[in-house]
Give the backbone structure.
Amino acid sequence: MSAAPERTPLTDRGRRTREALLSGARSVFEEQGFGATRMNDIATAAGTSHGTVYTYFQTKESVLEAVVQQVIDELLASLQASTAPDPTERVRDANARYLAAYAEHARLLRVVEEAAFSDARFDEVLRQLRSTHTSRVAAAIRRLQAEGAASADLDPAASAAALCAMVEGFARHHRADDHDTLTTLWARALGLSTKE
Amino acid sequence: MSAAPERTPLTDRGRRTREALLSGARSVFEEQGFGATRMNDIATAAGTSHGTVYTYFQTKESVLEAVVQQVIDELLASLQASTAPDPTERVRDANARYLAAYAEHARLLRVVEEAAFSDARFDEVLRQLRSTHTSRVAAAIRRLQAEGAASADLDPAASAAALCAMVEGFARHHRADDHDTLTTLWARALGLSTKE
Amino acid sequence: MSAAPERTPLTDRGRRTREALLSGARSVFEEQGFGATRMNDIATAAGTSHGTVYTYFQTKESVLEAVVQQVIDELLASLQASTAPDPTERVRDANARYLAAYAEHARLLRVVEEAAFSDARFDEVLRQLRSTHTSRVAAAIRRLQAEGAASADLDPAASAAALCAMVEGFARHHRADDHDTLTTLWARALGLSTKE
Amino acid sequence: MSAAPERTPLTDRGRRTREALLSGARSVFEEQGFGATRMNDIATAAGTSHGTVYTYFQTKESVLEAVVQQVIDELLASLQASTAPDPTERVRDANARYLAAYAEHARLLRVVEEAAFSDARFDEVLRQLRSTHTSRVAAAIRRLQAEGAASADLDPAASAAALCAMVEGFARHHRADDHDTLTTLWARALGLSTKE
DNA sequence: CATGAATGAGTCTTCATTCAT
DNA sequence: TATGAATGAAGACTCATTCAT
């Protein structure tokens, strides 16, 4: 009866405020992490009173969810498979883009990971993200195998999982833009026939 | 601010209490995570009263730190380089042991990761752990290269980082004991000359 | 403090809106009680926007006050003294009508009682209601005594108070339409001479 | 896991504090009502910090519940049936005691009524209280009927309900100690044979 | 050493009311 | 008039940490 519905802004002013909140929230989350961020910080960052946050969002989790929603699609879009002709180029390209995308969103992803410790929703978000990406990579591997460009004896799904883990882990812990080693390892692991 | 120094128990009874606390704390942390664990839960799990925890530890973080300390050494010990004669066997062996060790300590490691979000100390712990392991792997790779068993053109440090990331990520997200694919990928990536 | 004066709507549209608000408010109050009702709920029930409520009413209390105003007169009107010739019939008739009226308005009266805990205005409303009704009953008793139909030794005011309390309490707690016992008790208490 | 159990004090100091809280709470509730009472007020009245209230009680409702628990038994005890030989005396006696008990606890009962609007637990408390008392009165009426001292044609349960409602309502609205009228009405309603 | 009581800073959240459009 | 956004006072509750016994 007396709910506090996640309101969708009806006017322009409302839309602007909501945007300001999302953008402010993202900044603050990225700077302070999820747990350390106070609803008040979000309001302040958006230039509103703290009550206004609750006009558009129910809880801190909802805010993060909305922030993430905006980012997820954009993130997945930037991870589309490469169309380079050479397999190794494709891999290099894919890794480069992954590392770039990761670098751009690293801080927010960390926030989501943090939030995942106390809210399963975010676990799911991450699982989805990984699973989508891994599936794409598995498909790419299958394609390479069909073309005879990659070792046929590899399990595509497991390989994809492992290789994605490698890139993600590398991106996370070394945030280097050095993807040469990465590409080489990947290519050799898959037994890519290189043009030379 | 903090009055009582972290005390090392002098009496037998004290030693026993401290052990109970550590063991209880580990259970509770693993079950509930760091943030969700109350000092009270730790005391209860250890069968002591609330205040006793502070006889041995200064803060919740200190408790986790002590728990972790116990585990770290044990963990690193179980990750010593293999002594198998065949390179691929060495890799398989190492991966198997890594996955086993990870599985055994996964929950606690997650707790440390969670705590790392609010306390840099734990970030450091994880970094150390990874770095120690990666160094060892890098050394192993260098050895293989010296023996002519692995591709000489690979950067040992970067490769080690990437391959460790792969195993860690695989262990984390897929907690499978399927290490065949992992070993194959690793071996091929390194260009291991297989005995056949 | 309160800027806008309680306005009487001047246009037709205004009158309709005000009616909708009152009717919606009554429903919501009766369903949820006073404290649990949000201004928002009232607006929603009336099909208006949030802010519109304040065009017609100053506070939540004002809304209830207006709702009650409408009901009070109607309620008192339905409790006019009976004109049946036989005293016992008159009593039975009066009780029946009281119970019926109570049943019809019970929920709203409960709301008023609830509001009375935090706003003396509503205490006064209830006191008035009771006092009006009790006075009428006292007058009726005096009439009966004058006619020699009721025991002359009873204090009319006190008896009326007690008997009204009985009917009200019965209505409140037992919401039965069984008024036989009630009528009998009442008649015997007053020593009504029965026709037989 | 991380519950905040309604703790029973184990030490004397704890017992004293809990008592202080209950007694302070009762005062404050009676003075300000349930809704207007802040946890802080209770703490202050008990001379503790507000956190201490939560050492012993979970919510404001729990505090009231504990306060009421203490009173209920005492209240029911003081409403035991009279042992006077004369029926009318018994009634007078019972009413006198009821009015006295009511007067003593009136304020707290009002608080319970207030709380009942938002918490069904308290509705139940009141229902129980009434029902216990009404049952006793019904039993008393049956006894009188068996002795031939009261009209045999009355339904004891319904009569008890009505008469209890009368006394309660009278006590509530007129808090007079004038119980003469009450006793007379009651006696006549029941057709008590008076000794004269 | 152990116990359990006491503390209070820190946050989220609600919602009546005001205000700009 | 009507709308819907904005405000912010107010209060409940948690829990790490301190302290008296």
